[in-house]
Amino acid sequence: MKKLKLVMVGNGMAGVRTLEELLKIAPDLYDITVFGAEPHPNYNRIMLSPVLAGEQTLDEIILNDWAWYTDHHIALHTGFTVNEVDRVRRVVSASNSAGDLVTAEYDRLILATGSNPFILPVPGKDLAGVLAYRDIADTQAMIDAAATYQHAVVIGGGLLGLEAANGLMKRGMTVSVVHVGNTLMERQLDDVAGRMLQQTLQERGMNFLLNAQTQELVGGADGRVTAVKFKDGRTVPADLVVMTVGVRPNTALAEKMRLHVNRGIVVSDTLQTITDARIYAVGECAAHRGVAYGLVAPLFEQGKVLANHLAEMGIDRYQGSQTSTKLKVTGIDLFSAGDFQGDEHTEEIVMSDPMTGMYKKLVIKDNKLVGACLYGDTVDGSWYFELLREGRAVEEIRDQLMFGPSSAD
Fold first, then answer.
1. Within this chain, domains 4-116+247-310 and 324-408 share the same CATH topology
2. Using N-to-C axis directions, what is the helix angle for 159-170 and 136-148, rounded to 10°?
3. First-to-last C-alpha distance (Å) of the chain
4. Which of 103, 203, 235, 293 is the most buried (most CB within 10 A)?
5. Helix or strand or coil: residue 212?
6. φ and ψ of 39, to 5 deg
7. What is the percent of the chain with per-residue pLDDT over 70, rounded to a whole number?
8. CB of 139 within 8 A of CB of 145?
9. What pLDDT digit, counting tens, does each position of 190-246 carry?
10. What is the spatial distance between Cα 357 and Cα 374, in angstroms, rounded to a whole number?
11. What's the CA dihedral at 65, 67, 68, 71 to 10 degrees?
């Protein structure tokens, strides 16, 4: 029986997880071809921060080495960017920096193009020494800069920005974190936890400029960045500027293919694009029910559903994901889930001990836990997430909620 041809554009975590799931349940159904723009096999992008900090090597964060592709008879083209997809002839065309061309026919096509870092549109953004923080090349450029230069400015006080700042500090640089908001990581933490995090990081030597809007990146005669200038007149020296101000779904190829795009490549519950049933999208580039997910867990859930559909079992549907965030920012444990901010229609149970650096806030509505924010002690996070996800009534255990599942038995 002649195998179907499956082509995947993108060689990142969501796409390769899809292939792993597919190979478990239908190992002989497809001839598989993968195009990856980076010159590496699949690696754990989440672990770039420990590489930057010198705690791990690039080899240690590889998830699927070259042999894995060979063993599974996958044709892998690294360093190739897909320029065109002919949806009528069902042919993918790609090229590399040397001008080599590769084409591949498909019966099914997966777009796993991920996302692109957002670069602030300010004067000086194209100077040498101005980087995003997205891949191995960015990480290596930061490591190289830290060996030569002293002053780093990280623009963006979210998780990625703080991890970048921590890694550069460990490499010996003086680091200032610039954030447009009042508190750090406002998407994952409330104001109290955000301020506790800032205080802890300041004690470790990290500098912060909050409520700061970047006006211009100033360059020297050699074309390298020398300072960051803000709208309020402040200026800080910078030999290296790292922008971590968010990402955008990478939909350029999909738009060129005339697929429907709205905050991502619009997909159905089977991860099929709504424009072309032979084409699927998975991961950060996909928009499902109006949401483009950036956390790993939802993307792996998508991959499992897509694999099921590609295997022609067709029994699974992706319903969307309820997400929680359990993080370790430079050795500090954080957890948040649901509506952890609360409003006038919710109640809050709060425990705070600044001396030990512990903070817990539980948000309740209609006798159900709807949100949680934990700082310093996250051991009960998975239990709170289970209560939240299942929508269980907590009225009978309310007085014990703050003390974890063992107290609520």
1. no
2. 40
3. 57
4. 293
5. coil
6. -85, 30
7. 99
8. no
9. 999 999 999 999 999 999 999 999 999 999 999 999 999 999 999 999 999 999 999
10. 11
11. 180
Neighbours of 340 (CB within 10 A): 23
Question: How far is 284 from 102, CA to CA, in rounded Å?
Answer: 25
Rounded to 5 degrees, what angle do the CA atoms 308, 44, 22 make? 15
| Residue 228 · residue 123 · CB < 8 Å | no
What does CATH list as the number for 130-243?
3.50.50.60
159-170 helix and 191-203 helix, angle to the nearest 10 degrees: 10
Please state, in angstroms and rounded to a whole number, the distance separating the CA atoms of residues 160 and 226: 23
Q: Closest by alpha carbon to 108, among 318, 312, 317? A: 312
In the chain, where are the structural domains located?
A: 4-116+247-310, 130-243, 324-408
Handedness of CA 53, 57, 58, 63 (dihedral sign): negative
Q: Is the dihedral of CA 283, 296, 175, 168 positive or negative?
A: negative
Yes or no: is domain 324-408 CATH 3.30.390.30? yes
Quick one: angle between helices 13-25 and 296-310, nearest 10? 40
Tokens 């063992």 -> residue: 406
Which CATH superfamily includes the segment(s) 4-116+247-310?
FAD/NAD(P)-binding domain (3.50.50.60)
Closest by CA to 286, choosing from 308, 312, 305, is 305
What pLDDT digit, counting tens, does each position of 245-283 carry? 999 999 999 999 999 999 999 999 999 999 999 999 999
Nearest to 61 by CA among 72, 76, 75, 45: 45
Q: Please give the helix or strand (H or E) that residue 292 lies within, else none.
A: none
d(CA 352, CA 375): 9
